[in-house]
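#onboarding

Welcome to the new folks! Below is a worked example of what a typical request in this channel looks like: someone posts a single protein sequence, and someone else replies with the predicted structure as tokens. Don't worry about understanding the tokens yet, we'll cover that in week two.

Example request:
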Amino acid sequence: MSTMQYRRLGGSGLKLSAFSLGAWITFGTTIGRSEARELIHRAFSAGVNFFDNAEGYADGEAERIMGDVLVDLRLPRDAFCISSKVFFGAAKKPRPTQKGLSRKHVRDACDEALQRLRVEYIDLYFAHRPDPEVPVAETAWAMDQLVRAGKVLYWGTSEWPAEAIEAAHRVCASHHLVAPVMEQPQYNLLHRDRVEREYAPLYRDHGMGTTIWSPLASGVLTGKYNDVRPGDSRLTRPGYEWLQRLALGESGDRTLDKVRRFVAVAGELGHPPHHLALAWCLRNPDVSTVLLGVSRIEQLDDNLAALPLVDGLDETEWRRIEACFE
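Example response:
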């Protein structure tokens, strides 16, 4: 297994593993405590030090499972980082005060996440989506208070437009509040514009980092959807039709044509397409860590094996890969 690499979270002093383990659509959904225990143990043994979660994943069950496993494994608390996110709520049918980014829900959600995760503080706390009904200043003040209370170390956003993040930074600067440090956006060979263009000023002006999700576009970049869609895949699950639209876009057939070209080039280069897709994400210096969404040990080991490819191809080969998606 390759030696793990570590990257600073933007301009902060926190170092995260290049690959990290996420709980979305796995913990509490397709895998239980025993499988989660094996995954976290294997990931930590391989050098992974960041485990990502959210209040809304499996209605809070993902956090409960992760918290139980971390306590059971007795991992040293100063050797790993854990996250949560606030916005969607943990209740199946949340009441008005059980969701969103109001000061009340931000505080309540943090306390509840701490209980589910069985930790005394959350390393990374994300505002999971922008909330048009709550002033950005209110959310920024709430996050600042959590940091000053020692319940959160770093706060950030997930899938916020750059203008809203800039507004949060203005509020924090004018009131001497702790500013957002990171964003968690989708980023892969099929979805590049937001991370590479829209967010560019955020890296330059505010030193923000990114903890990117869906590096394989929910499996599309593996090539497994090129001819037939596996029945046990994320894109075919009932209730996740929105994910299929997100991964394939409005022009699904044209997207798959690009992926077919990519798979062919990967074969010529002698590497699995998913390894190239994962390594490509890490070539971006503004990517702090790549979240892996796996449900089996074999998948985890396989994805971690992509790390050497970050520096294993020359610029001509990477340009061939990117040309497939033009």
